[in-house]
Amino acid sequence: MRLATSIAILGLAWMSSMANAAETLTVYSYRQAFLIDPILEDFTKQTGVKVEVVFSKNGIAERMAREGRLSPADLVLTSDFSRLIELADKGLVAPAESEQLAKNIPAVYRSPNNDWYALTKRVRNVYSSKERLGALDIDYEDLALPKYKGKICTRSGKHPYNVSLVASMIAHHGEQEAKTWLLGVKDNLARKPQGNDRAQVKAVKEGLCDIAIGNSYYLGKMLQDPQQVSWAEAVNINFPNQANRGSHINVSGMALAKYAPHKDNAIKLMEYLSGEKAQQSYAEVNMEYPVNPVVSPSQLVASWGDYKADELPIYKLAEFHQAAVKLLDEVKFDL
Ligand SMILES: [Fe+2]
């Protein structure tokens, strides 16, 4: 009897270890297939764990809330910080405890209670017309100076990338000063906010404005696109606030789903994504800055030079996110 029980227990243990390798993880991803698929294929090759990805441009939080406990999602990948905060605020994520994650991802780039982690960094750069301004030693604060009146192009203030920048201005200067600054920037716009980050650089090339606000990796992407290379070549990339706090950083990231059916393997995947090989892929394929400090940026990105990053912890931006959205409404930035 005792022997039979032992055999049964052994059998169960054996089956569960097999089941582990045979599991299929489900990832909900705001990040695009060209970037994510090759990385996940390599994870499967290394571990035997298959991964199914549901790609979305919008609505992952709503979907997970609707699915509740029955959600198949194990892990969510986001292309920016505000989506991570949205998931956390809505109670859709669980803490992922892992020494490996703590080692791979510096503390300023993860949630203090481990319920989300950044995977890549990008700078919110100021691009200047080579022809009309040349390279600039510029601070975000300077974008409100009268000398730039009618010279600045940007996408919607409400886009997460700009909300995050405004949140960092509130974090550093307080709401009142940030509002004065934002009104100054609005006053300096060459046109109503519109289009994406690349469209602003194109507008500089076309002479509509002299300054474009945009993320770092887009310069790399434009340089590699035959249709867009001339836009990229018309601008200098400037890293703001180098003489003081450093350039504003936004991040892409990941979070373990609250009801992840395969939690252990999901954490294995998180560790893999923060590890050297996957981080190198992010750097090479999407020209972002790896969050893991032992991995270098791509050669092209490195050629833009070293820069000082604002060390305000990313989770601090969350505290000012709502205030930033409110401020953008108050000054009617997009109108
Ligand atoms: Fe982007």
Plain-language structure description:
This protein is of the alpha/beta class and 335 residues long. Helices cover 45% and strands 16% of the residues. It contains 15 helices and 10 strands. Strands 1, 2, 3, 4, 5, 6, 7, 8, 9 and 10 form a 10-stranded mixed sheet that branches. Helix 2 links the parallel strand 1 and strand 2. Helix 6 (160-173) crosses helix 15 (321-330) and helix 7 packs across helix 15. Mean pLDDT is 93; it is low at 1-19. Bound molecules: fe (ii) ion (FE2).
Roughly what is the average pLDDT, rounded to an integer?
93
Percentage of residues in strands: 15-25%
Largest sheet: 10 strands, mixed
What is the helix/strand order? HEHEHEHEHEEHHHEHHEEHHEHHH
What is the tally of beta strands? 10
- Basic shape: globular
In short:
With 335 residues, the chain is of the alpha/beta class.
List the helices and strands and how they pair.
Blueprint: H1 2-22, E1 24-29, H2 33-47, E2 50-55, H3 60-67, E3 75-78, H4 81-89, E4 93-94, H5 99-104, E5 117-129, E6 152-153, H6 160-173, H7 175-188, H8 197-205, E7 211-215, H9 216-223, H10 229-232, E8 235-238, E9 249-257, H11 263-274, H12 276-286, E10 289-290, H13 299-302, H14 314-319, H15 321-330
Helix pairs in contact: 6-7, 6-15, 7-15
Observed structural traits:
single chain, 335 residues, alpha/beta, ten-stranded mixed beta sheet, 10 strands, binds fe (ii) ion
